[in-house]
Design goal:
The protein is of the alpha+beta class.
Length: 256
């Protein structure tokens, strides 16, 4: 029995899924899952394009375009619907501008931090932990949708208000598969009340682009709760093109 226990203790298995890690170790494994340091460093900019569908209609509502270079990002989600034009968010590395009156502008701090869009943008926050200096806390394996994921809490260094960011990784591959953001804002209108907004990003169907492993499908869900009313908006994007080191229009990241 003693020998059996000894053998079982040294049998290689899912050490990544069972062993508690430090945040730095989790981030290191995650970056390695994207590609080698040389492959990651070779990328100056990234352009991803695809068709977007809005739930519950599930019909093509427009074209999604994410363009990034360094910390500059442009997230375009134009939709031809009467009640919601879509999103056009531009961050030039210092200033954020929204070309439409959409819902994502509420989460502007997350775009500035390089969180939104995950590994689909060159501004990805976890690729520059030393520069951004966030507070990171490994929370262990957590179940979401019946599956377990490594959960990492991310606290931006410069943040105001009640903001929570939880980042999730596949325990086998260490790929970034989900991020959940929650913002609680206080309002006064005939009394004091709070609005809780939750934004969830999901990344799947990973593919190889210039020696980098990146997601090709993207799901974005926004839930807004006030009093007893809850509104949810959801989009699904299938990216058909992932290109690097393009000749970008000089006006791509111009803010107004």
């Amino acid at each position: 029995m003693g020998a059996l226990i000894l053998v079982m203790s040294v049998v290689p298995g899912n050490t990544g899924a069972t062993q508690k890690m430090k945040p730095a170790e989790l981030v290191e494994k995650h970056l390695a899952a994207i590609g080698t340091p040389e492959a990651r460093a070779a990328v100056r900019n990234r352009v991803v394009k695809g068709a977007a569908r809005r739930a519950p209609e599930n019909r093509i509502a427009g074209n999604a375009v994410f363009v990034s270079e360094g910390r500059s990002v442009r997230l375009g989600l134009p939709f031809s619907t009467l009640d919601y034009e879509g999103e056009d968010l531009v961050f030039d590395g210092n200033k954020l501008w929204s070309g439409m009156r959409g819902q994502l502008s509420v989460f502007r701090v997350l775009i500035k931090e390089g969180l939104m869009g995950g590994t689909l943008t060159t501004a990805w926050a976890l690729a520059d932990v030393a520069g951004r200096r966030p507070g990171l806390k490994y929370k262990g394996l957590k179940k979401r949708g019946g599956q377990e994921y490594h959960e990492l809490q991310y606290l931006p260094r410069k943040v105001r208000g009640d903001i929570r960011v939880l980042v999730y990784f596949d325990p086998q591959t260490f790929r970034h598969v989900q991020t959940e953001y929650r913002i609680v804002e206080e309002y006064y209108a005939r009394g004091k009340y709070w609005i809780t907004r939750t934004l969830t990003e999901e990344f799947a169907d990973f593919t190889i682009a210039d020696d980098l492993t990146l997601p090709s499908t993207y799901k974005l869900r926004i839930t807004e709760g006030r009093s007893r009313n809850i509104d949810t908006t959801e989009w699904k994007v299938a990216f058909e093109q992932i290109r690097h080191n393009e000749q970008l229009d000089p006006k791509t990241f111009v803010t107004k």
